[in-house]
Every structure is written in C-alpha cells, then in structure tokens.
Amino acid sequence: MLFQNDPFRELDSWLSSAGRRNSATTPMAMDAYRRGNDVWVHIDLPGVASDGIEIDLDRNVLTVSAERGSTREADDQAYIFERPKGRFQRQVHLGDGLDSASITADYDDGVLTLRIPVSERAQPRKINVGTGQTAIEAESVAV
C-alpha cells in the first residue's frame, strides 16, 4: 500500500474531479535553443505513443498535440495520481527567419525533438564594401 503525506490531497482530488487539473490546456515541458543554423525544440511527452502525437503548422504557428490515457481500471483502488492524463497541446510561434518547410521531427525515449532550420536570408553574412572609385567609374562610362 502506498501513502503520501500531503495535506492538500483532498483539494487536489476535488480539483481533479472538477476537471481543472487535467484540462486540454495542460502545457508540456519544453526547451528551445539555437545551435548554429538550426533551432532545436525538445518537448517532454512521457508515456505517449508516437502515433498519438500530432504536429500542425498554420500561418507560422506550430502546434504540437498529444494524448495520454490512464492505465487505471474501473475497480482499481486509488492511492496517488499525480501524472496528468488527457489531451496536451503546445503552440510555438515561428518567426519569418525560420524555414518552416524544412522542419524535421523525431521521437525517442519520450522526448519529441524538432529541428527548424534558420532560413538563408536570416543567417548572418558578410557584405563586401567596395571603393567609391569603382562606382564613379561605372557611372562616367554609362553616361
């Protein structure tokens, strides 16, 4: 038998039964960073099957949705239920500097990894500076 010393257990149970704790807006833990010419996004989805993950892109808004069901059966006696279940969703707004047509996704060990390349026009580059004489010579020849 398992017990948890939690003075708020009754309140958590009531909130959970009221549907507020496991709502469709429950966020998923996420890390996002830029490495070189790619933006990497890692989203934790433990216990979610890969075919239960949906990734949609609409007007530069990337939406990741997933669903995790319960392993509990109707006649099970409950002791502790802390793992959220239900539908989860996370939205990320992609800037114009990202190449949304080249996004790749991989799911391994409960972590969804997205690689979003930075578009060529948004990558840093050097611009050569010419001398003023070259521009003047070109103008005088053209006139």
Protein architecture, described:
- With 143 residues, this protein is an alpha+beta fold.
- It has a domain at 25-72 and 85-124: Immunoglobulin-like (Sandwich).
- It has helices at residues 9-17, 132-142; strands at 30-35, 38-44, 53-58, 61-68, 86-93, 104-108, 111-117.
- The strands form 2 sheets. A 4-stranded antiparallel beta sheet has the order 1-2-7-6, with no helix packed on it. A 3-stranded antiparallel beta sheet has the order 3-4-5, with no helix packed on it.
- A hairpin with a 2-residue loop joins strand 6 and strand 7 (111-117).
- It is elongated, with a radius of gyration of 25 Å.
- The N and C termini lie far apart (95 Å).
- 6% of the residues are buried.
Summarize the structure.
By secondary structure, this protein is of the alpha+beta class.
Mean pLDDT: 78
Helix count, DSSP H or I runs of 4 or more residues: 2
| Rg from alpha-carbon coordinates | 25 Å
Which residues form runs of ≥5 with pLDDT under 50? 1-6, 20-25
Helix coverage percent of residues?
A: 10-25%
Order of helices and strands: HEEEEEEEH
Which descriptor suits the 3D outline? Answer: elongated
Characteristic terms for this protein:
143 residues; alpha+beta; Immunoglobulin-like; 33% strand
